[in-house]
Amino acid sequence: MMRRYCLTLDLKDDPALIAEYKRYHQKIWPEVTQSIKDAGVENLEIYLFGTRLIMILEAGPKFSFEAKAKADHANPKVREWEELMWRFQRPLPQAKPGEKWLLMERIFKLEP
Question: Where in the chain are the domains?
């Protein structure tokens, strides 16, 4: 069974930084995409409006945020990517120290 998660994060309000962030995401490092797939993520998309990012993540039953975080921490290339991306990102006001992407609550789904 596929599960869908939506997460959000903001970018710094700087057009040059936003353009650079978008360029990085046109060619994500292969180690990063492999770590996403290895975690059980089947599909991942990021959308941008102004400075607001929305990530839609679809994952199989073996996926867990905790396991993904543990694997990321053990992967030097993923840690390097995350540190680089933090140059462009800023936490939402609701984020706890060290939190980046925040899980959104689904409040509506169109049923057939």
Answer: 3-93
CATH architecture for segment(s) 3-93:
2-Layer Sandwich (3.30)
Match 């169109």 to its residue by tokens.
110
Distance CA 83, CA 60 (A): 27
- Of the pLDDT bands very low, low, confident and very high (cuts 50, 70, 90), residue 1 is confident
Q: What is the pTM of this model?
A: 0.91
Both tokens assigned to 108: 């509506």
- What would the two tokens of residue 53 be? 């990012």
Per-residue pLDDT tens over the stretch 16-55: 999 999 999 999 999 999 999 999 999 999 999 999 999 9
Q: How long is the chain?
A: 112
Round to whole Å and give the CA distance between 97 and 76: 22
CA distance 103 to 33: 20
Rg of the chain, C-alpha, whole Å: 14
